[in-house]
Amino acid sequence: MPDNDVLLCDPHGEPLRETADVLDLIGEAWTAGATWVAVPAARLPAGFFTLSTGVAGEIAQKFANYRIGLAIVGDVSSHTAASTALRAWVVEANRGGQLWFVRDEAELTARLRP
Predict the structure, then answer these.
(1) Which residues are registered as beta bridge partners of 73?
(2) Is the overall model pTM greater than 0.85, yes or no?
(3) Range of the domain at 89
(4) Which of its termini does the chain have fewer beta carbons within 10 Å around, N or C?
């Protein structure tokens, strides 16, 4: 995979707090020619893992609208253990080609290999 295929977000960067932050990230991906953005799970807003807030759907939809893949990188098991709906969504997302939940960058790299 060429280096510019994935925009890797700094794990110590600012959390994504609002739609403008997500759009800025998408803009960075476009500028870099990236087809995927890897966001550390710790940088997601608190409401992301509570599906009823709509935050996860809104963020995922923004990336889908711009045809840029979104990889959530990190351990989300504490969230999926607490929510059957979230667990099912993660499983379903990982079957597709737009949104993935991966443990680390190595897993993302492996999934992106042809």
Answers:
(1) 40, 102
(2) yes
(3) 3-112
(4) C
